Structures are given as structure tokens and as C-alpha cells.
Amino acid sequence: MKRKKHTSAEDEAQVDMTPMLDIVFIMLIFFIVTTSFVKEKSLDVSRPEDNQSNNNQPSKALSIRIDETGKIMMGGREVDIRRVVANAQTYLAENNTDTAAIQADENTEEGVVVEVMNQVKIAGIDKVSVLVKKG
């Protein structure tokens, strides 16, 4: 009979980790590939810069109010929609501004607001903001 040689403690039982690591890496690749990255849809908002130190900033904005019946008020007086361009150009000649603020009632027809915006842009004001007054 043959006798077994005594082996050292290092050579006894060892667990081979290679197959387990292979499976872990395959699962990792599977989850990375199957994950879907969704880009959320949103509006791009351009905020105005804080330029209080700049003295050649335009003065106050042109203010236009539209009530629920479609009556247009500029400078405290009623204006016909065909005269918005002329009144805006007069305001531009007297004031250093490049913005206009249109305050419309909640029940105002959208067509009137859009037409006033177009008239103001024709007059030479590119920055137009619309405010909606509720109530």
C-alpha cells in the first residue's frame, strides 16, 4: 500500500473564485446595457443677469394693459390695436428701453394678445413679456 504524503495546510482546500467573478461581471454588463437613461423634457429658462452696476441699462419697460373685452390701454389711455405700433415708437423715442410688458386679463382672447405682441415687435421692441391677471 501506498502511503499518502502529508500536504501542507496551504495546499488543502481552496475555492476557485474565477467563475463567481465572471458571473458578477456578466450581470453587471447586463444591467448597464439594459438600463435606459431618460432625459427629462423641460423648458429652457433664460434668467436675466444682475447688471446693477451698468449705468446704461434701459429705463422702465413699455406697459400695455388689455382687459377682458379686448380694450388696450397704453400710458393710461385707450388705444386702438392699429395704433399700437405708433404709440410704441413714440414711447421708444422718449424712453431708453428695449422691453415691453403686456398685462392681459385672464378672459382676454389670445388673438388680441398675440396681435399686440406682433405690433410691439414691429415697433422695434424685441423683449416682450406677457403677464396674466386673474380675477
UniProtKB/TrEMBL annotation:
Subcellular location: Cell membrane
Gene Ontology annotations of biological process type: protein transport
Any one GO cellular component localisation term in the record: plasma membrane
Keyword list, A-Z: Cell membrane, Membrane, Protein transport, Transmembrane, Transmembrane helix, Transport
One GO molecular-function entry: transmembrane transporter activity
Membrane topology: Single-pass membrane protein; Single-pass type II membrane protein
Principal place of residence: membrane
Keyword Cytoplasm: no
Keyword Transmembrane: yes
Membrane-spanning segments: 20-38
Family of this protein: Belongs to the ExbD/TolR family.
Protein name according to UniProt: Biopolymer transporter ExbD
